[in-house]
Amino acid sequence: MEKTYIDALPLTMNSSEKQETVCIFGTGDFGRSLGLKMLQCGYFVVFGSRNPQMTNLLPNDAEVLSYSEAAKKSDIIIIAIHREHYDFLTELTEVLNGKILVDISNNLKINQYPESNAEYLAQLVPGAHVVKAFNTISAWALQSGALDASRQAILKKETPFSTSTAWLYDSYVALGILGFFLFVLLGITSLPSVSNAVNWREFRFVQSKLGYLTLILCTAHTLVYGGKKFLNPSNLKWYLPAAYVLGLIIPCIVLVIKFVLIMPCVDNTLTRIRQGWERNSKH
C-alpha cells in the first residue's frame, strides 16, 4: 500500500535554530493533525506506528518508524493512542526510561477506570515522566484552526447594568412555558370524559377566565419575542409584516373587546340584560 502525504506549510520557522524532534505514537486522526501543526511550527516530527509501511495520510516531512526506533529519536513522546492499547509500552520500558510521555487520551465515560489514564501510563512505564496535555482539543479543531472550531468570539463591551436583553429572553421563555401549560390544560378539560365530571361553575371558570389568561400569556409571549421589531421598518420584507405579527391581529382584537366588556359600566349593563332587563320595562 503506497503512502499518501500532505504538504505542510511552515507557520513560523527560524533556519538558524536547530529543529527539535517530537515523537508521536499513533497515526490516527489526532496524531496526524497534531503532527501537521508541529511541522508548521518548526518541529521535526517522527511517528511511531505498529505498521510503518502501511501508514498513510501523513504530513510530507514526517518520518514513520516503529515504536522503538521512533522513541530513540526524541525525548518528548506524545501518546496519541487509546488506553486499551497501552500494553505494548511495557516492552519499551528501557527505551522510554527518562523520557517525557504526553498523555492526550480521554475515556468514553466518567469514572470508567479506577485511576486516570495518566496514572495508568505512569504505572506501566515507571521510569518515564508522564504529563497530561491536549485532551481538551479535538482533531477537527487542529485541522481547521481559526477558520472554524477554534475561532474565538470577539468580546463586546457592555455596561454591567445593561440586562434588558436577558430579561426579555427570560420573559419570553417563561411566558411561553406558562401559556403552553394552560393551553394543554384547556384541551384536557374540553374532553367529554373530563367536562362531564365537573360542575358548571368549574367548567365556566376553566373555559372563560382560564381561557382568557391563556390567550393573554400566549399573546404576551409573541409580543416579547417581537420586541422592537414591530415598529422597525427594516424588518418588513416587501412592506409586509412577519407571520407572527399577522398572527397577533385577532388575539389583540379579542383582548381589547374583552377589556371593554369587563369595565364596570358595561359589565353591569350586560349582566342586567342577561337577567331579563329591558329598557322600557317596568319590572
TrEMBL record:
GO terms for molecular function: cupric reductase (NADH) activity; ferric-chelate reductase (NADPH) activity. One of its GO terms (biological process) is copper ion import. Residues 21-107 form the Pyrroline-5-carboxylate reductase catalytic N-terminal domain. Pfam families: F420_oxidored. InterPro entries: NAD(P)-bd_dom_sf, P5C_Rdtase_cat_N, STEAP_metalloreductase. One of its GO terms (cellular component) is plasma membrane. The keyword Transmembrane applies. Keywords: Membrane, Oxidoreductase, Transmembrane, Transmembrane helix. The chain crosses the membrane at residues 166-189, 210-226, 238-262. This is STEAP4 metalloreductase. It comes from Saimiri boliviensis boliviensis. The lineage of its organism: Eukaryota, Metazoa, Chordata, Craniata, Vertebrata.
